[in-house]
Amino acid sequence: MQLHPPYLLFLGDAKDPFSIKLARGVVDWRPELALAEFALPGCTETTGIQSMDIATARANGAKSFVIGLANSGGTIQDNWLDCIKLAIQSGMNIISGMHQSLNDIPELKQLAKQHNVELQDIRKPQQTFKTGTGQPRSGKRLLAVGTDCSAGKMYSTLAIEKAMRDSFSVSFRATGQSGILIAGEGIAVDCVVADFISGAIEELSPANEPDHWDIIEGQGSLFHPAFAGVSLGLLHGAQPDALVLCHVEGRDSMRSLTNRPLPSIEQTIEVNLQAAKVTNPKAKFVGISVNTSALEEQQALEQCQRYEDQFGLPTIDPLRHGVARIIENL
Amino acid sequence: MQLHPPYLLFLGDAKDPFSIKLARGVVDWRPELALAEFALPGCTETTGIQSMDIATARANGAKSFVIGLANSGGTIQDNWLDCIKLAIQSGMNIISGMHQSLNDIPELKQLAKQHNVELQDIRKPQQTFKTGTGQPRSGKRLLAVGTDCSAGKMYSTLAIEKAMRDSFSVSFRATGQSGILIAGEGIAVDCVVADFISGAIEELSPANEPDHWDIIEGQGSLFHPAFAGVSLGLLHGAQPDALVLCHVEGRDSMRSLTNRPLPSIEQTIEVNLQAAKVTNPKAKFVGISVNTSALEEQQALEQCQRYEDQFGLPTIDPLRHGVARIIENL
């Protein structure tokens, strides 16, 4: 899926900072893609960039209207429809990461056709994939894996890609909706039909120049009972040379589950390495990325040092310490 | 997906025995579901049951017309359409396991609506699933896993379910198209959206009486670079108490891949057990089911004995030796 920036980021009537995570991700990581934001009356949030109405944004070159907020049901709310229609009429494509598909709303579909713009549901891959082959591909690949979902895999890989840009030929390969919006392309791997998980990743990260690095966003965890299948297919398809382990310090139960303790870092390294070797016998871990937000500065340093001593891998909090030491280890 | 037997098994103009595998599976395992077969001129194959034309089959109670053959492209062939339409007009549902969806052919869709019958694409789950929870469920579960795809998982689980019927409360749970046709219901797990693999299996094999056994058809292999994601999600969703390892003796490369050796039985046991324990810490292997068709009778017995000595598990070829010894080990 290829998106068309620059974006007008729509914030709806968002009232808490977490709900505009999608819009904020773009502004944090690819400010050049975000022309402006646009909110409904009652919205209390902002990404901090300039605000423009739809007509002004279009006149200033905005090519896509991005639904930059999330709600609990994942539905396109009725009070967004007038804005979406106006954006279509102005000639903008519409980008959505909601569960409900833009393309399932007949009046939007018809209007988009009439104005020759695209309705892009980034959670719904439209292309057909082949099944994976496991055949080695040229080029180098780094993949983030985790002890859990939401363990910092997107943040870590974006930080690594950014820090590598000056010295390496490098691409960020997005596998989730936030990542796709930031990268402007990618495949929402958890939305692919199960038969094609690894095949989709083989297509997302094709053969490349021998020194080129693909930095591939990870998803889920091999230990998460809901999503491990996605994680394993992604791992096999990525055939990573380098793995980065992501972990959230102080989390006591796996994401969205109760009473399910996280696996140890040791287990996570062992099981991921074993599985990675199915498609890349040379796979190895190159670093550990820890979200230490639950700790004080000094405690965070000490905890990272403990992991570093235990596993012999550079261990950092990407937000606090940067990712340079992991890159040095490539 | 709930199918409606009895079936009229359509063989098209099949010219080799492998192409009518779907139809033959029903006749082998659930002859009571198959009223008759029906072939086009030029067909050289038969399942061995009586032949009837569409009108006669309908008059004798056939409720579904089953496309019981496969072709290489997975498309609904033009020369089948007249028969399919006639079956719809006679009041039969149409069942297909082809890649091309019956529901994507407008004239069939319209005709089916007009005659109030269903077009059932058994490879395309229609229901929406929840993500898995990994929560323990009551009842007992057996799952077949393999060193490879097409390693006898369906055959072994059907044989086990059949042999258990007299002494146990037992259900066969189908996860692939042939299995679904035989069981009359099930979920084609490789066609589920990746996010819902384990959730779909939790729904397929719900909580049950404490002594009830679900015998769950396995898919793929944790070592197959195309399909391991499906296998892992299925394993986590099944939370099996008992695992049966399926293996084909003498195969030198993994199915549909070249130059990829199969994992050892030892590795397959170790990795499956480790993964199974994520959702069922008490999971254990109860037997090994080997397809020994490449060996002579005596060699087959000796090879099974070698595996039995090596792994301490009852080892049989289900076709040659039956599955009783695995059931005794439950």
Explain what the structure shows.
The structure is a homodimer of 330-residue chains. The first copy, chain A, has 330 residues and is an alpha/beta fold. Chain A has 2 domains: 7-121, Rossmann fold; 140-328, Rossmann fold (3-Layer(aba) Sandwich), CATH 3.40.50. Helices cover 33% and strands 17% of the residues of chain A. In chain A, the strands form 2 sheets. Chain A has a 6-stranded parallel β-sheet with strand order 7-8-6-9-10-11, with helices on both faces. In chain A, helix 1 packs parallel to helix 6 (177-183) and helix 7 packs across helix 8 (228-238). The first copy, chain A, is globular, with a radius of gyration of 20 Å. The mean pLDDT of chain A is 96. Chain A binds chain B through residues 131-134, 189-195, 197-199, 222-223, 225-234, 236-237, 256-257, 260, 271, 274-275, 278-279, and chain B through 131-134, 189-195, 197-199, 222-223, 225-234, 236-237, 256-257, 260, 271, 274-275, 278-279.
